Amino acid sequence: MSNTETFKIIAMDGGAAVGKSSTSKGLAERLNLMHVDTGAHYRTLTHALLQTGADPAKPETIPSALTRLELGTTLQGRSAKLSVNGTVPADADIRSPEVNAAVSTFAALPSLRSFLFEYQRGQSAIARDRAYAGLIMEGRDIGSVIFPDADHRFFLYADEATRTARRAKEGQTDSIAARDQMDSNRKTAPLVCPEGAIQIDTTPLTLEEVIETITRLIQPA
Ligand code: C5P
Q1: What is the model's pLDDT at position 28?
Q2: Of the given ranges (58-62, 103-107, 143-147), which has the lowest mean pLDDT?
Q3: Residues 6+ apart with CB under 8 A from 81
Q4: CATH 3.90.550.10: does it fit domain 8-218?
Q5: Which residues line ligand 1 (CB under 6 A)?
Q6: What separation, in Å, do the N-terminal and C-terminal C-alpha atoms of the chain show?
């Protein structure tokens, strides 16, 4: 059966460690969606650029560095991953303390964001071609910039102590508050709650409860 008429795009935005990835992956499983983590896109490019010695303090050097990076998509389970020059970097490499510290600086560069724009929009065609029921894309600007026309927009948040505890449990060194501050205050595509998005406080909820709440909003009984 064709999915053209029923295909849904779900935008999942929010700050660092609010539960976007676990929630999006769980929803993808439950609702037969293709999952895309755009935070991983910025991390992958940051990792690749750091390896070439690129310096975000010299933004004029970034566009030429980007022309040497060829982007591709590899499906791992339901998650579509960004490959650079034919390789998907290991999770440990894109979640290292070095990448955590640099990613928000690179992500604030307009050249880097426009480099990813078409690629990210194009993920919906890949999900349709592969006969998924829809696409769930998580990030900071999905409902505001990448898919302002999404069928459903959600904005997750949680208190800082809960977020820090979640990252610590994952064994990560990450300055969540500093990244959020940079992401919220940058000029291009800042972290915002998109207009009309449904806001969900994940602080008091288990992962299953968040997934259940959103499933009911997407598919009312
Ligand atoms: O989601 P995650 O914490 O892995 O994202 C890493 C960083 O990538 C964010 O702190 C932000 O600087 C950047 N990002 C972004 N826009 C997105 C997704 C992530 O600027 N849509």
Answers
A1: 98
A2: 58-62
A3: 40, 73, 74, 75, 88
A4: no
A5: 16, 38-39, 42-43, 103-104, 107, 139-141, 179, 183
A6: 23
Question: What's the pLDDT at 176?
Answer: 86
Among residues 66, 99, 69, 103, the alpha carbon closest in space to that of 87 is found at 69
Q: Where are the domains of the chain?
A: 8-218
- Ligand 1 pocket: which of 23, 115, 140, 164 to mutate (most atoms <8 Å of CB)? 140
Q: How confident is the model at residue 2 (pLDDT cuts 50, 70, 90)?
A: low
| Among candidate residues 192, 80, 103, the one with its CA nearest the CA of residue 144 | 192
Atom of ligand 1 nearest to the CA of 20: 1
Q: What is the pLDDT of residues 14-29, one digit of tens each?
A: 999 999 999 999 999 9
Three-state DSSP class for residue 76: strand
